[in-house]
Design goal:
Layout lengths: L3 H13 L4 E8 L9 H16 L2 H12 L3 E8 L2 H5 L7 H15 L3 E8 L6 H15 L4 E9 L3 E3 H17 L9 E5 L20 E7 L2 H10 L6 H30 L3 E5 L12 H8 L9 H19 L17 H8 L5 H7 L7 E6 L5 H18 L3 E7 L6 E5 L3 E4 L9 H4 L4 E2 L9
Parallel strand pairs: 1-2, 2-3, 3-4, 4-6, 7-8, 9-10
Antiparallel strand pairs: 1-7, 4-5, 5-13, 6-10, 11-12
Amino acid sequence: MIDETGILETINMIRLYNLDIRTVTLALSLRDCMSEDVNIVCENIYGKIVRYAGNLVEYANELENDYSIPIINKRISVTPVSVVGESCKNPDYAKIAKTLDQAAQDTGVNFIGGFSALVEKGCTKGDELLIESIPEVLANTQRLCASVNLASSKAGINMDAVLLMAEKIKRTAELTKDAIGAAKLVCFCNAPGDNPFMAGAFCGFGEPECALNIGVSGPGAVRAAVAALDKDADLSALADKIKQTAYKITAAGQFIGRKLAGKMNIPFGIIDLSLAPTPAAGDSVAGIFQAMGLEHAGAHGTTAALAMLNDAVKKGGIMAGSHVGGLSGAFIPVSEDAGMIEAAQNGYLTFDKLEAMTSVCSVGLDMIAIPASTPADTIAGIIADEMAVGMINKKTTAVRIIPVKEAGDRVIYGGLLGTAPVIRINELSSSGFVRRGGRIPAPVHSLNN
């Protein structure tokens, strides 16, 4: 139970430390929208989204006003579209994409996710067509996000698809201003089907007809709690304080999630415990590292600090949430975290250090700008490395990189996407390896039936 002091602390988290509900995401199955006629598919998709999500933004805004807890994003995730489009005699994924984008606009949500394919063991014809369409689709839509699962701990890594996606990332960047399209495209290993965060959200095959999934935030609140501890407090006491704070953040998120699900008369799905930073001052995961005692993100010890933070957030949050899922942990998106931006600009954070940190955080290489001249083969090597981290460690990892400008430059997106310093990367060739093709076999621990 949370006593009066706990309630006041939560109110202060909202007022002073940027605590918010980062996203409420309606997950919606489109499997009953299939037809041999793509026009009927589009008609079914639009009708179902508007029917289920028509009041999402209105009801979320009402709860935001009633309880004075900011709800930053309202989103929709749908069944992987490669499967839905595959039912058509003549699939037109661009047409389906425009329908999804229009439905998102008409319901008022920020983003819609699920322009996705799951190809860890290989591609069907529908998967191939969807992946081929991604650059043009993202260049011609506003609110649609795309994702492709390239690997899993059970299946291994589909290197043919890795190389193909590297080429699509480059092409998407070329077709969109400041390569912004690449910020709406993510490659996964072990993608969860209940993730509420973009760009990787989709409604997985084991999910119900619809559900409301919640993503909380609160790195500013955690940083403040850690900074308030006695400087002589040991790391066990620090971990306990993070757990206590995560409990309060999660309790607030689950409360809002259940209220909104009840208002919409749909099931409450999961709460994602991820600490999602923003470019706002004080709302930074990197700031937590400094409060822990590191001079800055990137100092030796950063990976250990992130591992402890990730674990403590999960331990505290899981006690407050009935159903925890999604990604859950701590995000380290470079462009979306003021402290990470500063660390990258000052050279404290290298690409290799970021990759090492992904072995213990909840996602992966996220919102990292690399030089536009980077060859597709090198991008494929980057993706393959990150897929290997997820595959071996039985965790979700992801790659959302933006090929843009030159090393040392920066690109300003504004809003939650922030500012992306262009990071220098290793220029040694990966070509001979990534172009062998085939599939990297799953590790021995995948044989656990």
